[in-house]
Amino acid sequence: MTLTSTILQYIDAHADTAQKLLLDLARIPAPSNHEEQRAEFCLDWLHSKGAKTAYIDPALNVIYPVGDTGENDLMVFMAHSDVVFPDTAPLPLKVEHGRIYCPGVGDDTANAVALLTVAGYIAEHHLSPKDCGVLLVINSGEEGLGNLKGSKQIMADFGRRVKEFVTFDGNATAIVNKAVGSRRFRVTVTTEGGHSYGRFGAPNAIAQISRLIAKLYEIKVPPIGKTTYNVGTISGGTSVNTIAQKAEMLFEFRSDEREGLAIMQSNFDRIVEEFRQRGVEIDVEVVGDRPCGAPVDSTDLCARAAAAVRAHYGFDVTFGPGSTDCNVPLSMGIPAICPGCVIGSGAHTREEYVQIDSLLPGLKVAFELVLHHF
């Protein structure tokens, strides 16, 4: 829908309130799988606006259902609460030079605030959807080893009725409309170990896992879409004079094509088995599994979102692949996209920031996309 003058006046009048909400929410720590504080804050905020049906599900999603009969079609709008940082104390925040600096402020707190502001408007004005139910969700577990927990829970509970899915995440300059799938593993190598002098020559777990990593980095990625791999962390050993008994790493591969993932899985399994055949004790634990998309037509959603960004930011967006909460519905053949409602930089760094003057047009984008169904 095109926003009416009344709605635009509401957004303008509540821009400072939304910014204050962002300053409050951004400070609350929310590492993946530990979003309890933010979930409670968001639930209390929604209840204060009159969204009495809002609740927290077992995955720590904050869900505000509007017009959900339990049987009708559903449109899902999400923004995730978790950040990549492990902090359990309040996150450091500063405002200067027209920017709000805080770890996680753009990914994804500002987008969550935009969605909360729309939800507050809907609750305050007792709006009902035109021809469907709408789920407004501040979801958990999007980042890293959160493994899309919140999105998976929503689709497990409501998936058969979901007809469209939008998650607000990242910058307004780009829209994700294709899923980059991934598999992530914790790989542990164990040896007998011993004294570095007395048992010199005994197998060393660090040396063995280093050889394994070197072999993995010889893999030639398949020429199918874009496929990548990475060792993200490595740890192990006891002391400088001890032959390491244990070493572990986190390894992932990604692809925007299912066949690319399958080929990488085959290569990974083959190399691990080769080392096991040499007598190396290797344990492999799957710690992340994000699906690729199935064939799906998201043309209408893309056009609607691009038009909203153009109307309120004044530029044309780019479209491309990404790893977002959309992976789950896209893997089920459900139209899904991921637009952003903010402009900033430094995502996944301590220096992350958002531009304050990008927040108001971002609110308007969120309002336009959600209120399309009202």
Written account of the structure:
The protein is an alpha+beta fold and 374 residues long. It has two domains: 5-180 and 292-371, Zn peptidases (Aminopeptidase, 3-Layer(aba) Sandwich); 181-290, Alpha-Beta Plaits (2-Layer Sandwich). The protein contains ten helices and 18 strands. It has helices spanning 5-13, 15-27, 36-48, 105-124, 149-158, 205-216, 258-277, 299-313, 327-331, 359-371; strands spanning 55-56, 62-66, 74-80, 94-96, 99-101, 133-139, 162-167, 174-179, 181-190, 194-195, 227-236, 242-243, 246-255, 281-290, 318-322, 336-337, 344-345, 353-355. It has a six-stranded mixed beta sheet, sandwiched between helices. β17 (344-345) and β18 (353-355) form a beta hairpin. It is elongated, with a radius of gyration of 23 Å. The chain starts with a helix and ends with a helix. The mean pLDDT is 96.
Defining key terms:
Alpha-Beta Plaits, single chain, four-stranded antiparallel β-sheet, 35% helix, 374 residues, elongated, 10 helices, Aminopeptidase, six-stranded mixed β-sheet, alpha+beta, 2 domains
Set out the fold topology.
Layout: H1 5-13, H2 15-27, H3 36-48, E1 55-56, E2 62-66, E3 74-80, E4 94-96, E5 99-101, H4 105-124, E6 133-139, H5 149-158, E7 162-167, E8 174-179, E9 181-190, E10 194-195, H6 205-216, E11 227-236, E12 242-243, E13 246-255, H7 258-277, E14 281-290, H8 299-313, E15 318-322, H9 327-331, E16 336-337, E17 344-345, E18 353-355, H10 359-371
Parallel strand pairs: 3-6, 3-7, 7-16, 8-15
Antiparallel strand pairs: 1-2, 2-6, 4-5, 5-18, 9-13, 9-14, 10-12, 11-13, 17-18
Helix pairs in contact: 2-4, 4-10, 8-10
